[in-house]
Specification:
Belongs to the ABC transporter superfamily. One of its GO terms (cellular component) is membrane protein complex. With 233 residues, the chain is α/β, with parallel strands linked by helices. It has one domain: Rossmann fold, CATH 3.40.50.300. Helices cover 29% and strands 28% of the residues. Strand 9 and strand 10 form a beta hairpin. The two termini are 34 Å apart. The mean pLDDT is 94. It binds adenosine-5'-diphosphate (ADP) (2 copies). The site of one adenosine-5'-diphosphate (ADP) has 12 residues, from strand 1, strand 2 and helix 1.
Length: 233
């Protein structure tokens, strides 16, 4: 069985008399250590899938099997443990703690899990060894996003969930961020999921899951994903 198996997942939102099917029977799988890009236009249902995979929201029906365990069956307490121990989050707008330095932000990981990576080592691996003592406001957008990634991977998560991680960045900086995400997956075995509406980044992924109108329309497997440096958008 694949590392992640989303099986016939449904999520509906009720607004007065209307029901919105945000996910309408979604199924896909992702192998360990892959970069999977979930691609689709705004409103397609991507964030809903990501929130469910991250244990931030629950589905109405279906199985969400991660590393052999169906997290759809978890209670609130189990979901909290899962979010804290197994998932790293990277959002479009870096949610760093403003009054903590880069290093202190990454050190937060060790308050969540007991076997967190050394903050200086992780910050070095994302190219920020010169920025350890800077506060977020003293860092560029790309540097802040790298701190966010460092904090997320310091927990050694099974899954790294990324919501439009380059959305707020310029082109070259965005490329650096995607390179870090690709290297993280391929060098550490962390499974990376990126949701985006930008189809041009698809060649960097091992797997591309196209979602539209709440359904999976197409899944492509790239046997030889391109290094981020070799793609343009
Ligand atoms: P995407 O991430 O692809 O833009 P979303 O998963 O955010 O799509 O949304 C899918 C659909 O579900 C949209 O029609 C959206 O308006 C609706 N939706 C998302 N979250 C909520 C919510 N909390 N309440 C009501 N409708 C929602
Ligand atoms: P806490 O017990 O501190 O409330 P949570 O279980 O909410 O922790 O979150 C655990 C981890 O998941 C933290 O690293 C947190 O940053 C991340 N996380 C969970 N939900 C969200 C969210 N909605 N936005 C940003 N990060 C989140």
């Amino acid at each position: 069985m694949a590392y992640i198996n989303v099986i016939d997942e449904y999520k509906r939102y009720h607004m007065g008399d209307t029901t919105i099917a945000a996910n309408d029977g979604i199924s896909f799988s992702v192998e360990k250590g892959e970069v999977a890009v979930i691609l689709g236009p705004s409103g397609a249902g991507k964030s809903t899938v990501l929130n469910i995979l991250g244990g931030m929201d629950s589905c109405d029906e279906g199985e969400i099997v991660i590393d052999g365990t169906d997290i759809a069956k978890y209670n609130e307490k189990q979901l909290t443990t899962y979010r804290r121990n197994d998932v790293g989050f990277v959002f479009q707008f870096y949610n760093l703690v403003p009054n903590l330095t880069a290093k202190e932000n990454v050190e937060l990981a060790s308050q969540i899990v007991s076997d967190a990576l050394d903050p200086e080592d992780v910050l070095k691996s994302v190219g920020l060894s010169e920025r350890l003592d800077n506060f977020p406001a003293q860092l560029s957008g790309g540097e802040q996003q790298r701190v966010t990634i460092a904090r997320a991977i310091a927990k050694r998560p099974k899954l790294l969930l990324c919501d439009e991680p380059t959305g707020a960045l310029d082109y070259e900086t965005g490329k650096q961020i995607l390179t870090i995400l690709q290297d993280t997956a391929h060098n550490t075995g962390t499974t990376v999921l990126i949701i985006t509406h930008n189809s041009a980044i698809a060649p960097m992924a091992d797997r591309v899951i196209r979602i539209n109108d709440a359904k999976v329309r197409n899944v492509t497997i790239n046997d030889e994903p391109k290094p981020v440096a070799e793609i343009e958008w």
